[in-house]
Amino acid sequence: MRIALDRDKCTGIGLCESFASDVFEVDDDGGLIIHGETVPEEYRDAVLQAIEGCPTEALRLVES
Amino acid sequence: MAAQRLVVVGASLAGLRAVEAARKSGFDGAITLIGGEEHLPYDRPPLSKAFLDDAAQPVPTYRDRSALEGGLGVDVLLGSPARALDTQSRVVEAGDRSVPYDALVIATGAAARRLPGTDDLAGVHTLRTVDDAIAVRAALDAGARTVVIGAGLIGSEVASGARKRGLPATVLEALPTPLVRAIGQVMGPACASLHTTHGTDLRCGVTATAIEGNGKVERVTLSDGTTLDADLVVVGIGTVPCTDWLAESGVQIADGIVADDTLATTAPGVYAAGDVVRWRNPAFDTSMRLEHWTSAAEQGALAARNALDPSAAKPYSTVPYFWSDWYGTRIQFVGVAGDADVTVVDGDIESHRFVALYHRGDRLVGALTLDRPTEIMKYRGLIARRVSWSDALAFAGTRKAARDNRGAAPV
Questions:
Q1: Are the C-beta atoms of B161 and B193 separated by less than 8 Å?
Q2: pLDDT in tens, B357-376
């Protein structure tokens, strides 16, 4: 699976990092970094929580 | 018998997340969502931020009616403030309807505290609802001279919005130090100094003794005798949980609806979520009532799941988190401030870019960052894991060293 990020919507609030810190990280300028091209299966639940928890609904899961 | 009818009272973030979570969990019974306002659920944080900037900003509605009614199969009753709850016969009275339930989630939120005697004066507003925000924005569009009463998060964001337009803004704070409840005695002034840096007139230790005008606000008189000309007064002096309608219900109230760690109230089948609930937070072994976006969303979802399957109810444990944007500076706080000791571990207060950590005894209990968005969530994790103060300081040292190295590296 992969994560699609809508950078126009993302405001860098960081809740996704709080749920899945191995996958998401807010950078020094408030932009969001997604670590890795694809997301290992073990992080699925945490990533789903992050997607659900995003205040601006900027994240989407893309199954590969 | 499993619940057939879920009723959610309160059609804001927590209520919306409750109905969405119910469907996600596989519940296929009837759902009714009851809202006091005429509006579909909308997002509140932008109302005191980007929404104030220009009239082209749309109302931040989460879902349209067809998504709620058609997509989720929810019966949506708007403009129907809940009037009473009968926990014996399990019926909610809302507007002119009586709505029976098997499982109930109460998410009626909190209302902005108003200043007595100002209701008939145009130009005096609280900022809680989208109608409030539209009125405040219109006043700013007209070039209002703004006086904000209360130097809390919302009031400070309004002052910031006024200054962004080049309009004069004054913030009045009754206490000698602003933001004490949110971020503590030490860091309150560190954030509040953003006001003075950006040309907002911050006056602490004064109250408004009179707000006057001929039909429309014209001036504010202060307890020190000063008079300020004003076209817009925004009152940001806290909120009151919306529990009046529960007075006869038997549900226990104590500055919010009292709930256990699973968000269950004292009435069978009744759960509560969002600004209205005072629940026991296992992360800090204490009862708290939060008015934060994050907890409202998460509690709404969990309250619905627990209400529909009480035998498998899970506790809601959280490290509180809020953010606020002032004058282009992002303020983020995780944890609880109270009377904890505070140490700045990176950056400095004067530059308005720093990381401050809070500890009580040997436990890290909070973190405040100004324009350090990459740091804040790391500390939220540490607080949740109950790390010791010395471990927190060691971690902060590592982070700072890495930052200093990046800064020193050739470009």
A1: no
A2: 999 999 999 999 999 999 99
Q: Which CATH number fits domain B5-111+239-312: 1.25.40.10, 3.50.50.60, 3.40.1010.10, 3.40.50.300?
A: 3.50.50.60
Q: What is the CA B92 to chain-centroid distance, rounded?
A: 26
- The CATH number of the domain covering residues in B328-408: 3.30.390.30
Q: Which residues in chain A are contacts of B378 at CB distance < 8 A?
A: 17, 21
Residue B203 forms beta bridges with which residues? Answer: B172
Residue tagged 């800064």 (tokens): B407
Q: Residue A18's closest chain B neighbor by CA?
A: B377
Q: What's the pLDDT score for residue A37?
A: 86
Band the pLDDT of B55: cuts 50, 70, 90.
confident
Question: Where does chain B hold its CATH 3.50.50.60 domain(s)?
Answer: 5-111+239-312, 114-235
Hey, of A8, A9, A17, which one would you mutate to test binding to chain B, going by the most B CBs within 10 A of its CB?
A: A17
pTM here is 0.96
Contact A28/B at CB under 8 A? yes
Can you tell me the distance from the alpha carbon of A25 to that of A60, in angstroms, rounded to the nearest whole number? 16
Size of interface A-B (CB pairs under 8 A): 41
